[in-house]
Amino acid sequence: MKLVIPTAYDPKLSIPETQKAIRFIRETFQDEFGREMNLSRLSAPMFVDQATGLNDNLSGVEEPVHFTMADLPDRRIEIVHSLAKWKRVALKRYGFKMHEGLYTNMNAIRKDEELDNIHSAYVDQWDWEKIIAKNERTLTTLEETVQTIFKVIKHMEHEVWYRYPQAVHHLPEQIHFVTTQELADRYPDFNDKERENAICRELGCVFLMQIGGRLRNGERHDDRAPDYDDWQLNGDILFWYEPLQMALEISSMGIRVDQDSLVSQLRELNLEERLEFPYHQMVLNHQLPYTIGGGIGQSRLCMLLLGKAHVGEVQASIWPQAMLDQCAAKRIQIL
């Protein structure tokens, strides 16, 4: 258990006021985000059949919560880690057209998460996906999409300020684009998290690009599943978060794999057996649209905009008693 206690922390809002602010942020953001990105809201599953290959494998070491069903006793059913692959299949299944997309509420359980101020076993995010043309699988498309998302987040800051001026956490005016290799060159003696903290402290908000592949020194900045994002065309939106003195990731996103990047990335990790899954076969056989997509943390966004010290102030989850006791002593109001 890791816990950061800000000096002289003031939650600004009572628990009832915070609950109202959470509802306002979630409802307003998803409407504005969907409109700006041309996305329609869809319902999505909480669990999938392991045999489909649709679940997100994250970094490859986290075990999904799983169970069997009375009517499907021989099937391993898994709580989703995210809907990264399911969304791409849904766009085809529901007949979405070029430059149309979807967003959905994604709720997950990540039981292996190390709990701290910003990590919970309960994950809630807006998962989104949008169809693009093959010739739009470019850095330009990625950066333009990131700028649109940043614009919506900035507009939400102004909306929150209008309603809760005493509580809003002010954000930087622009987002900067940096690759993981540029970051390693800039801070060669730092580890990956120290690099993220350093660049965000300096620039305020960063889209850190090209996560998953090897750097020139043979290391990886961070692990990323090999079968949804193209590692050359992905990244994370990170804000410098003054209350906790750290980088706060709000979104992970990217242009999705085509048949070539899927094979090369699986081969790099010696996971070519995944190519037999139905989802991977659809990618290989050109049966799915080219897409860009990602996830935006709902609780993380509320935390960022309201200046909260702990994600448990904006979501209900389970925490160690020692953490609850420390938070209560410092006016951190865990729900």
UniProtKB/TrEMBL annotation:
Residues 23-320 form the Aminoacyl-transfer RNA synthetases class-II family profile domain. Its EC number is 6.3.1.1. Keywords: Amino-acid biosynthesis, Asparagine biosynthesis, ATP-binding, Cytoplasm, Ligase, Nucleotide-binding. This is Aspartate--ammonia ligase. Pathway: Amino-acid biosynthesis; L-asparagine biosynthesis; L-asparagine from L-aspartate (ammonia route): step 1/1. Belongs to the class-II aminoacyl-tRNA synthetase family. AsnA subfamily. The gene is asnA. It holds the Pfam family AsnA. The keyword Cell membrane does not apply. It catalyses: L-aspartate + NH4(+) + ATP = L-asparagine + AMP + diphosphate + H(+). The keyword ATP-binding applies. It is found in: Cytoplasm. One of its GO terms (molecular function) is aspartate-ammonia ligase activity. It comes from Lapidilactobacillus achengensis. Its main location: cytoplasm.
